[in-house]
Amino acid sequence: MLDNLSTADKYATLKARIDELEAELKAVRDDIIASGVENVVGEFADVKVTLSERATFDQTLAKSFLTAEQIAACTKKSVVTTLRVKAKTAEG
């Protein structure tokens, strides 16, 4: 189905499908959580709902305690590859 498309069009098509599926998955996830059931049993899979506590690090607050040199010594830099998709319209 995607074999005749350019690589850019394949990427955009697959990304659109994934975005739709992620939205659908989020809705199902929300339904499961709203049900209040801890163990959801299905024919093909079971889903267990658990709660956990997450700790976060306040980078802005931490920086207020450090000097610029200390911040630089603790900073790691890396290269990140980003792909952005822009659909073309009939007008151009």
Describe the structure.
The chain has 92 residues and is mainly alpha-helical. It has one domain (7-73). The protein is 46% helix and 7% strand. The chain has three helices and two strands, in the order αββαα. It has helices at 7-35, 59-65, 68-73; strands spanning 39-41, 46-48. The longest helix has 29 residues, at 7-35. It is flat, with a radius of gyration of 22 Å. It starts with 6 loop residues before the first helix and ends in a 19-residue tail after the last helix.
Describe this structure in a few short sentences.
This protein has helices spanning 7-35, 59-65, 68-73; strands at 39-41, 46-48. With 92 residues, it is mainly alpha-helical. Strands 1-2 form a two-stranded antiparallel ribbon.
Note the overall shape. Answer: flat
Query: Mean pLDDT, rounded to whole units?
Result: 94
* Rg over CA atoms: 22 Å
Number of domains: 1
Derived structural class: mainly alpha
Report the end-to-end length measured between terminal Cα atoms: 25 Å
Trace the largest sheet across and list its strands.
1-2
Order of helices and strands: HEEHH
Q: Bin the strand percentage.
A: 5-15%
Individual helix count: 3
What is the tally of beta strands? Answer: 2
Which features characterize this protein?
3 helices; mainly alpha
